[in-house]
Amino acid sequence: MEIFYSPQFLHEYKRLPEKIKEQAIKKEKIFRKNPFDQQLKTHKLKGKFSEFWGFSIDFQYRIIFKFQYDKSIRFYAIGGHSIYK
Predict the structure, then answer these.
(1) What span, in angstroms and rounded, lies between the C-alpha atoms of 85 and 78?
(2) Measuring CA to CA, how many Å separate 1 from each of 35, 50, 67?
(3) Do 71 and 3 meet the contact criterion of CB atoms below 8 Å apart?
């Protein structure tokens, strides 16, 4: 599975605490094996984000992503609930 990272995602990732970065790497490894693994709590988003999906890094942080037509995935945002604004 090929994952691409938006410039926004990369910018937000750099600003995360080291502990969260480590957890994000672990969750991405799980995601690559199975995007719907129960540990991730993957879910379809609603409203203005209805084209996107999200999964949890921990209770506060999450990743917003989209399945692409070419069967790749693009990570758009990473952070707390403020990423939904």
Answers:
(1) 12
(2) 10, 22, 11
(3) no
pLDDT digits (tens, 9 = 90+) for 66-77: 999 888 999 999
Q: What is the DSSP string of 28-82?
A: HHHHHH-TT-GGGT-EE--GGGTT-EEEESSSS-EEEEEE-TTS-EEEEEEESGG
Of 51, 61, 60, nearest in space to 25 by CA: 61
* Domains of the chain (ranges, CATH numbers): 3-84 (3.30.2310.20)
Give the CA radius of gyration of the chain: 12
- 24-62 pLDDT, tens per residue? 999 999 999 999 999 999 999 999 999 999 999 999 999
